[in-house]
Design goal:
Chain lengths: 213, 296
């Protein structure tokens, strides 16, 4: 179905119908709802969003993508579903954290999976770093996505920001293996955070256990 | 209706359009096209005419190019307004000009001009920042990030449903609305300013600027401003007004600490001016700018 956010439109795909709490899937940077393949087992309906600039959703005139704005995309999907468990990969994981924090009453649990766009521009501003070559970003070869979505990777992701976000969430699951950026590592010690195996189907089963009806 | 006049303004000599990240952006020009280029960047909710009284002084020596930022004035609306994109818009204009430029910004435009100057130091000979040194540190009692972020998402839901401004019955009412926010600026000026920053729709007078810009959210904190100043490689003139205003100037202790990071700094306080230094005291402001740009 087609949703609206700001001046642009978004495609929210229903992958599976069911009763009970819906599951909202948020794809990685430069990905799309098609990334999820066969939808995971879930008792309620399963939905996958295309973020703006990706898949079948609209591209933002003038680029200007940033993670918090794409969280507005996810929030438009949540407004439609009213309540949902959320699973996100890469950039979608960072956004799943934001949504679970700002919309805690509507998101009983969020699952954070690795994927493209997990890093951002690191934990602190690097003042000596060269300014991004915006024209080169815009002119890059891109298949099925707006090359300017790359701008989401140019914003700093401080651990204390993630820490403050997670403090307001109900429950956050980290599909936790391997190297992770500092914002992710900061979540590990929080009381409402739980590590789960990185395998998608196993992780989703754990998400279901953490998401009462 | 006929365009209101305001004493000391001059009709622009030319307009300029250029493209940035696929957006069509607009600028007004005063002065000879053969003079050294001087690029001006306005503040939030302003537009190129905010420099209409200072431009006639500057255009005697310079090709004055006053930009309408994305979503402002006669520039195209964008779907998103991240800071980096706004800075890129300024860089694109700078790179489109043949010779290195002088750069001036006010308020938010001062901050963006500063970041543009840091990004392309070989293209910016000197920088003037008019009371664009960022907000003060967040006061105690500022709501937490999750609370502010949920307010941001609420705003995004509202603006998606109602993406337009409230219309006003007359230009005078539009000017009075702005006067409530900027009480130091005269209604006569604000009529001139609002005529060019607004338009008459079927419902009444509305702002041309994009209401979507109203709110942003992210991990950014004011403490990130000062260290960025250390990387400025050109002479910088920092201008503030002497009078308290609804926005700025920063308390002197905070401002002095931030500015102490600028390697080549000159400072000037314009007596009797508030935040809109160049609008309240155009001749005085132009003089200190001309002295600074002309000095070796």
């Amino acid at each position: 179905m087609r949703l609206k956010h700001g001046h642009t439109f978004l495609e929210l795909h229903q992958l599976r119908a069911g009763d009970g709490l819906p599951l909202l899937l948020l794809h990685q940077l430069r990905g799309s709802s098609a990334d999820w393949g066969t939808p995971p087992e879930w008792s309620g309906s399963v939905y996958a969003l295309d973020f703006s600039g990706h898949g079948h959703s609209g591209w933002l005139a003038g680029g200007g993508y940033y993670p918090e704005l794409l969280a507005g995309d996810a929030d438009a999907a949540l407004a439609h579903l009213e309540r949902a468990a959320v699973a996100g990969a890469g950039l979608g994981a960072y956004i799943a954290l934001m949504l679970a924090s700002a919309r805690a009453a509507a998101v009983p649990a969020a699952l954070l999976l690795p994927g493209r766009g997990l890093e951002g521009a690191g934990p602190v501003p690097e003042y000596e770093a060269p300014f991004p070559e915006i024209d080169a970003i815009g002119a890059a070869n891109a298949d099925g996505f707006d090359p300017f979505v790359e701008m989401t990777e140019y914003f700093v992701r401080p651990p204390e920001y993630a820490f403050e976000l997670v403090s307001a969430a109900q429950r956050v699951l980290l599909a936790d293996s391997g190297e992770r950026p500092p914002w992710w590592v900061a979540l590990r010690s929080c009381r409402n955070v739980e590590a789960v195996p990185p395998d998608l189907n196993t992780a989703i089963r754990r998400l279901a256990l953490s998401s009462p009806g | 209706m006929e365009a209101p006049e305001f004493p000391g303004t001059a009709v622009p000599d030319r307009s300029l359009t250029y493209e940035s990240m696929g957006l069509r952006l607009h600028a007004l020009e005063w002065g000879s096209i053969d003079s050294p280029p001087l690029v001006l960047c306005h503040g939030m909710w302003d537009h190129a005419r905010s420099f209409a009284t200072v431009a006639p002084f500057l255009s005697r020596c310079y090709r004055v190019i006053a930009l309408d930022g994305r979503g402002h004035g006669d520039s195209q609306w964008a779907d998103a307004y991240n800071w980096m994109a706004c800075v890129s818009d300024i860089i694109h204009l700078i790179r489109s000009l043949e010779s290195p430029i002088f750069l001036i910004g006010h308020s938010m435009g001062g901050g963006q001009a500063t970041d543009a100057a840091r990004a392309v130091p070989d293209r910016v000979k000197k920088l003037v920042n008019i009371d664009g040194f960022g907000p003060p540190p967040m006061p105690a009692g500022t709501p937490s990030i999750p609370v502010r972020f949920s307010e941001f998402l609420d705003f995004r839901r509202r603006i998606t449903k109602h993406p337009t401004w409230r219309p006003y019955r007359s230009l005078d009412e539009l000017a009075e609305r702005r006067h409530a926010q900027n009480p130091r600026l005269s209604l006569e000026w604000l009529r001139y300013f609002s005529y060019h920053g607004g338009r008459l729709s079927d419902e009444g007078w509305i702002w041309k600027s994009d209401p979507q810009m109203a709110q942003g959210m992210g991990p950014w904190v004011p403490e990130w401003i000062a260290p960025s100043y250390r990387t400025l490689r050109m002479p910088v003139l920092a201008i503030t007004g002497s009078e308290p205003d609804t926005w700025g100037p920063l308390p002197e202790s905070i401002l002095a600490e931030r500015l102490s990071n600028i390697p080549q700094l000159e400072r000037c306080t314009i007596k009797g001016a508030g935040h809109f230094v160049h609008i309240e005291k155009p001749a005085d402001t132009a003089q200190v700018i001309l002295d600074f740009l002309g000095s070796a």
